Amino acid sequence: MQIYIVPTYECNLSCPGCYSKKNKTDFSDYLSWVNFIKIYNKFKDECNKFAFIGGEPAKWKFINEAVLFLKNKGKKVTIFTNGTIPIYTKPTNVIVNGTNLFNLNIRNTILEQIKAYRNQRVKIALRFNVNDSFSNEMLKEAVAISKEYANSVSVSIMFPAEFTKSLGDLVYSLCNQVTLTGTKVRISRATPLCIFSSEQKSYLQTNCRLSGQCSLPNNSIVILPDGETIQPCVELNIYKNLKELTSSSPRNLFFDEIKNIKSKENSACSGCELFITKQCCGGCLSYK
């Protein structure tokens, strides 16, 4: 089981396409230390991996203490971060929003943090969020930065998006060029397969874990800052109470809602063989 904890939806940046902004009003508080310990105690026996997401988790005043606590318990800790605020207690992995490196005002700050993590032997993944405004110059920079600093790269289409061949060419070019540097690449979201040629699709499925189907429902959950509300992923706002897990696994708890969403056909998918044969669900479920 993978646990994703949102200790806060607060952030020091305002990135385009941020999925967290819509939750900030309803969940404005920070996770308390007491609730963090309750979460740990509930999942300590069945979960070896804990991840902190946001907002910006480095803004949580207990982030360093929480990382150290979990590591001392033998757990693996991943931080999803914009890279501008240091974390001092050496998480197992950091996933840095690589798209922020194109912002010259914060680029050097992020690179200094990445270098510090690398010196501590923290595994570094760069996450690139792409859309039609992702230029060739940005692509070249992403490849060069990934080669120099990243253990792995995550590529994600920013939704909502126009499903065009040009977008498919962009995703393919980025993944292909980063892969050729020897860096592992993963396409992290369900991605419409229709934007790729058959050759591109085959390459990406073989080398970059391309999938047209969302992996939900699965046995991972997101726990929100109140320490009680859970949802199946960071973008799909189906809320349940943590107490409901006493009688059901995450997979079963969200099964009916997700099955219903997956069955909905986007107008762009009408008659598509990939959708009919359940190879593709038309992209991120939260935009259906």
Structure explained in plain terms:
The protein has 288 residues and is an alpha/beta fold. The protein has a single domain, classed as Aldolase class I (TIM Barrel), CATH 3.20.20. The chain has helices spanning 21-24, 33-43, 63-72, 107-119, 136-149, 165-180, 198-207, 250-253, 255-263, 273-276; strands spanning 2-5, 49-52, 76-81, 93-97, 123-130, 152-157, 184-187, 220-223, 229-231, 240-241. α6 packs across α7 (198-207). The radius of gyration is 19 Å and the shape is globular. Pfam families: Radical_SAM.
| CATH H-level superfamily | Aldolase class I
CATH architecture: Alpha-Beta Barrel
Largest sheet: 10 strands, mixed
Across the major sheet, the strand order is 7-6-5-4-3-2-1-8-9-10
Write down the overall geometry.
globular
The number of helices is 10
The total beta strand count reads 10
- Give the SSE string: EHHEHEEHEHEHEHEEEHHH
Parts with pLDDT < 50 across at least 5 consecutive residues:
none
Our count of domains comes out at 1
Task: Compute the CA-based radius of gyration.
Answer: 19 Å
User: Mind telling me the CATH class?
Assistant: Alpha Beta
* CATH fold topology: TIM Barrel
State the distance separating the first and last CA atoms.
Answer: 26 Å
Estimated share of beta-strand residues: 15-25%
Average pLDDT confidence is 93
| Helical content class | 25-40%
